[in-house]
Amino acid sequence: MRPDGLPIWTSAAMPGHLHDTRCARELGLTAALNRSAAELDLPTLAESGYESTGHGIKTPVKQPADGICLAPDNRARNRLLCGPRWRGERGLPILIGRWKTPGHTTISPRRAGDIVAGALHLPPSDTNTHHQVAEINSLERGSVKTLKRSPDRPRGVVSSVASDAHTWNLVYLQLLLEEHGYSVRNLGACVPVEDLVAGCLMERPQLLVLSTVNGHGLIEAPSYIRRVRERAELHGLVVVIGGKLNVGGTVADDDVRRLLHLGFDGVFTTVDSVQEFRRFLTHTGKAAAGE
Questions:
Q1: Are the C-beta atoms of 159 and 210 separated by less than 8 Å?
Q2: For residue 125, what are the β-bridge partners?
Q3: 117, 10 Cβ separation under 8 angstroms
Q4: Which CATH number does 144-288 carry?
Q5: Which phi and psi angles does 156 have, rounded to 5°?
Q6: 246-284 pLDDT per residue, tens
Q7: Max CA-CA distance within the chain?
Q8: Which residues pair with 208 in a beta bridge?
Q9: How many CA atoms lie within 13 A of 47 on its CB side?
Q10: How many angstroms separate the CA atoms of 159 and 7, rounded?
Q11: Mean pLDDT confidence for 1-8
């Protein structure tokens, strides 16, 4: 993986019934990574599913099944491990976002590996990617350029946090917002906070939806909302967050109140979150229309 998250190597397709760790072992990856850690002092940061794959592969401490909270030192260790991993998590979203074929192919999985490998040697075919990069670069130089959107439709931005590579939740939310009349820009998975702020400055939306289902939302959300709220250009932007915000699944009331105090306008974490969010959208739409 390059520093910008673009993969430099992909394996051949493996049988779908095999676990990730078994595939890694059979391909020789775990042995190579452990050797790199031992001889080059280059450890690998991995998710908890790769536990016990070797001394050189560092994984988070799992949440106890009995509901007991992790000790502070273990929580701190998990935060340090998960923070830098967002670049690696961007690999799959970048592949299926820049090149259309890997995301929509219907051929045999045994042949799909060749297509994915070939994609690494092709220039991006999605011109929207080039436009987004150019617009973000112009923002960094101080030239703010907003995108043209229909004035009759409210604008919404959907995004995840830097460590979360899931995309199905973002697609669902995009469709839900469009169902409620929004013109939506989906920033995709593994979005660094700088890119999120840049996307909002380009779009000037009325609504920003952060969705994360990898259990790290409580850790990363505060930095996102602080960066959004400190921009005067985004004053009045409605910002909500939802999904699986911690690894335990249940979010304490104190954590919800903390997120609201930091600047979120809505926090959706219960089993009825979808219906609650629908009611929130209806209310927000009426308020924006002055009804």
A1: yes
A2: none
A3: yes
A4: 3.40.50.280
A5: -135, 150
A6: 887 688 889 999 999 999 999 998 888 889 999 999 887
A7: 67
A8: 157, 239
A9: 13
A10: 22
A11: 67
Rounded-to-integer distance, Cα 67 and Cα 257, Å: 21
* Rounded Cα distance, 179 and 31, in Å: 49
Please state the pTM of the whole predicted model: 0.56
Residues 64-87: what's their mean pLDDT? 75
Residue with tokens 């690894």: 247
What mean pLDDT is reported for the chain?
Answer: 79
Q: Which helix (H) or strand (E) holds 141?
A: none
Give ∠ CA 113-117-118 in degrees, rounded to 5.
115
- pLDDT value, residue 280: 92
Query: What CA dihedral angle connects 217, 168, 91 and 27, to 10 degrees?
Result: 110
Could you identify the residue written with the tokens 């592949």?
A: 95
Tokens representing residue 36 in the block = 């790199």
> Using CA atoms, how far apart are residues 45 and 52, in angstroms rounded to an integer?
13
∠ CA 157-163-168, nearest 5°, is 55
**Which phi and psi angles does 210 have, rounded to 5°?**
-100, 125
Give Cα 45 distance to the centre of its chain: 17
Residue spans of the domains in the chain: they are: 20-119, 144-288
pLDDT of 173-183, one tens digit each? 988 998 888 99
Task: Give the number of other Cβ atoms within 10 Å of residue 99's Cβ.
Answer: 21
What is d(CA 184, CA 153) in angstroms, rounded to the nearest whole number?
10
